[in-house]
């Protein structure tokens, strides 16, 4: 059986990197020759997770076709979020929890997607279904990914399946989910140490909505002012990247992980679509997003509905 690579999306978050490690482990146990890789370096939160559980970070790639013919995707399916040469590769497996858009294959594909808070929750189910034991270290990665994606089970994307997974994984990983989760989330909120470019790209995803190229980034913080005080510099960086990459609309969403509120910095057009999507006014290139914490459930569908 030929070797395959498994990876999450570009600008990887904790779930994208941990899920690749988890799925590679499962697939290797099931007889596949699979290596977990990443499409970017781990962010500060993910570094905390990997260090805490003693897990080496996957190597970073920019292309896959020089190494393999086939790949497996986790935590994404849209080609613009994937490896740069995805059009040269055969996708054999996908495990995801997002919308399905612009995705097609020439050959039959294994596709598992569920509307849960985190793809590691789906993988937790798959381990149990295949009767593959989850080691302590891997349980720690799964737990961390779910905490990250659901903001410690406070996000509206959280389901009972996520809650059950967190309870069981915390036991296997031998940690207190609440105590560990707060430490982990705070580890990823030191924005002062990050460059403008890193902030606008750190957790960014690209989407096509109504023929518009839309880029949406999310920054977790414990104080929105830590991000907003850099608005002018961030707007300059967003403008440069939008012009270079052809984005029509660029949103950088700052999210307070403690009180579950957000505010977005906006570059490009149509800004009136953003106002309509969130029933709020854009003022000086920012818009208040009270109660918004989930890009997947509270931002992408709303913008898509307006732009389409």
TrEMBL record:
GO molecular-function terms, A-Z: inorganic diphosphate phosphatase activity
Record InterPro entries: DDH_dom, DHH_sf, DHHA2, DHHA2_dom_sf
Swiss-Prot/TrEMBL cofactor(s): Mn(2+)
Chemical reaction(s) catalysed: diphosphate + H2O = 2 phosphate + H(+)
Keywords: Hydrolase, Manganese, Metal-binding
Superkingdom of the source species: Bacteria
Protein name (record): inorganic diphosphatase
Record organism: Apilactobacillus nanyangensis
